[in-house]
Amino acid sequence: MLLRGFSADALTYGYLMHGLCRMGQVDVARTLLNKILSPNIVLYNTLINGYVASGRFEEAKDLLYNSMVTAGYEPDAYPFNIMIDGLCNKAD
């Protein structure tokens, strides 16, 4: 897409990151997030969900409290619900 002169928007990056996370490629999704000039809260939540789904809660917490807040986004209920749901499912 980029080679043909098209620019990707946040929705495109979101789909790519969601697919990568579903395939277990969370680290690749994180690298992609780091390359985006101005990621939005949806992209952060997508990656947090990917980490939680992979059982990588510390990295999800680090992304939530460090990267997301540093980027200027105040976490709302959604990322915390992702974390709580993942921790509850882990206890099963």
From TrEMBL:
The keyword Repeat applies. The lineage of its organism: Eukaryota, Viridiplantae, Streptophyta, Embryophyta, Tracheophyta. It comes from Sphenostylis stenocarpa. PPR repeats lie at residues 40-75. NCBIfam families: PPR. PROSITE patterns: PPR. This is Pentatricopeptide repeat-containing protein. Keywords: Repeat. InterPro entries: PPR_P_subfamily (IPR050872), PPR_rpt (IPR002885), TPR-like_helical_dom_sf (IPR011990). Belongs to the PPR family. P subfamily. It comes from the Eukaryota.
